[in-house]
Design brief:
The protein has 9 helices and 7 strands. With 310 residues, it is α+β, with helices and mostly antiparallel strands. It has 2 domains: 77 residues, no CATH class; 147 residues, Heat Shock Protein 90 (2-Layer Sandwich), CATH 3.30.565.10. The strands form 2 sheets. A 5-stranded mixed sheet has the order 2-4-5-7-6, with helices on one face. The protein has a two-stranded antiparallel sheet with strand order 1-3. The longest helix is centred in the N-terminal third of the chain and has 85 residues.
Length: 310
């Protein structure tokens, strides 16, 4: 505030000094004006003040013109920068969308590849029929996932929040995770009391929890041995907490601080699963956090969802 008033205060001070000098012949006695140093001061002011005022006026006009040109140049530069940033944001948005599609379809396509390879080597009619059934199931799930992605782009007003039966949602999630759990040798355990309901969007809830659980199953696959994935839900006052815990290899400490940053990954994945899960949880009024086990713990991973209770 003081910096903005400084130019105005300088002008006012200069005006008062000039007014004082111009009024000396009226303020001082006539004897002092006609004789002594004061007379020279008055003569100097009479001769110097007019050209000095003209010079200052010309300088002010030149400064105003230069400031106007500078402002126009800054505005043009800002418009160019805004256009470049907008283009960058559009490209980044396209990258995120493409990576999200790749992330959500990666597991079904991987399962299809494994089933096709197994089907080509199988000669038993009964076993081939079972593999064909599993192929159809994975194709159905991939189709549903594409439908989920298209509906996820709708505005929140198009899909109003409603009461969601958490037990039913988690049971459906178990079915979706079952192929990946079998492939990694992981047992999926769900602990949720009957009648527990939350308020939100069922699609967003299932997608958010599935992304976190799928990360755990991928960690078991990379480790080469199975484990246990446990989902525990409980109501605490006005919110419902859902813990997603696994006894897998854990998360390296340097990666923990940027877990929810898009494209941050400790392996060859897209690094979007957790970022998407948190965004979906927050869109429904909930939250997703990583429960840090401390620097000494290298195994076991826990994520905590919180949702508004219905």
């Amino acid at each position: 505030m003081l910096r903005r008033l400084l130019p105005l205060l300088t002008i006012v001070l200069g005006f008062l000094i000039g007014l004082l000098l111009a009024s000396l012949n009226h303020l001082l006695p006539l004897a002092r004006i006609e004789h002594g140093p004061t007379s020279w001061v008055i003569v100097f002011v009479d001769w110097v003040a007019p050209p000095l005022a003209g010079t200052l006026l010309a300088g002010a006009l030149l400064y105003a013109q230069r400031a106007r040109h500078l402002h126009a140049a800054e505005r043009a530069a800002a418009e160019v920068l805004a256009e470049r940033l907008a283009g960058t944001e559009r490209r980044q948005a396209l990258w995120v969308v493409a990576a999200s599609v790749a992330h959500d379809l990666k597991n079904p396509l991987h399962n299809l590849q494994l089933l096709l390879e197994e089907l080509g080597e199988e000669s038993s009619p009964a076993r081939r029929a079972e593999l064909l059934f599993r192929l159809r199931e994975n194709l159905r799930r991939a189709t549903e996932r594409l439908g989920d992605l298209s509906r996820a782009g709708q505005k929140p007003l198009d899909r109003p929040a409603s009461a969601i039966d958490l037990v039913d949602t988690l049971d459906r999630l178990r079915e979706r995770l079952q192929p990946a759990a079998l492939a990694s040798g992981t047992s999926v355990e769900i602990v949720c009391p009957r009648g527990l309901e939350i308020r939100g969007d069922a699609l967003a809830l299932r997608s958010a929890v599935e992304n976190v659980a799928a990360n755990a199953l991928e960690a078991f696959q990379r480790r080469g041995e199975g484990g246990r994935l446990r989902l525990t839900a409980a109501r605490k006052q006005e919110v419902v907490e859902l813990l997603v815990e696994d006894d897998g290899p854990g998360i390296d400490e340097p990666l923990r601080a940027r877990l929810f940053t898009p494209f941050a990954s400790g392996h060859a994945g897209t690094g979007l699963g957790l970022a998407i899960a948190r965004a979906l949880a927050r869109a429904g009024g909930g939250e997703l956090v990583y429960v840090d086990p401390g620097p000494l713990s290298t195994e076991r991973t826990t994520f905590r969802f919180t949702f508004p209770a219905a």
